[in-house]
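SAMPLE LOG
Freezer: B-3
Tube label: C17
Construct: single chain, 332 aa
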Amino acid sequence: MHSLAEISKILNGEIQGDSNILISGLSSLDKANNEHLSYINNNKYINELANTKAGAVIINKELSKECNTNALIVENVYLAFAKASQIFSKKTTYNEGIHKSSVVNNSIISSNCSVGKNVVIGKDSVIGSNVVIGDDVVIGSNADIAPNVCILNKCIIGNNASISPGVVIGSEGFGNALDNNSKWHKINHFGRVTIGDNVTIGANTTIDRGTLKDTEIHSGVRIDNLVHVAHNVIIGEDTAIAGCTGIAGSAIIGKRCLIGGGVGILGHLNVCDDAIISATTTVYKNITSAKTYTGIMPIMLHNKWQNVSMWLTKLDKIIDYLNIKLRNLKEK
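STRUCTURE (predicted):
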């Protein structure tokens, strides 16, 4: 526990409210209780700020006028949040064997595994060699966890999961904040990964834990090899994702979507139910209609591509030129 006064000194913030309130950890505005510190960096979440039960909120001067709880006013909210995440981060050690507090329900646990504290594994599950399972993990019944899988703290996996070798579930998300000296400060992640029933995950796929909320993989999802799912992503039921796809943070993918190999989906976007995205497409805006989308150039000889790319970079100038010509014709 840290008082708001102690945290303020570390973050170089100005306190608005009770400096003696004790803070036990970080949480999102909508999930926080009176022992949590939260943050807001965008007017988009102003309604959540009005209704938050957080003990204190990291906030800028302008938004502090809308804050109904204790505030820690700073110039750079994102950087202050990064530093706060380091205050409350705890390092985890992984020891070989099954911790005495864990319940494995007669499932098969292979050699050289590390099963942490308060883990619950359902009936008839098989855990392969060299698997690492962090503290407070829950794995459902009839799970097939292949060798060399890592399932890190507090993650939840449903029934009938099939997880291939080398998968990492609950890794730290890619969150960093720049200070005034252009130095990076890591943001530690406190959310979980929650995975529904009947999900399959291909080899060497990584699914990052949420920053404060959870990353969610809903029931029936199929994920191929070498896919990266970033922090706070939500993937709807029965969606299938082919290999080498990358989904950036906080993207929301609907139900029953078909996503081809090598697709890139930018962060904070929404993809509606039943959308189909062709291989290697880059999704840079919301998809709101259940149709097929393709955003790639056809294959061609390299020297031809050089000519095509040269004209692509000049399209704006060509359009300006044509618009001038069109205006001149109209004036005549």
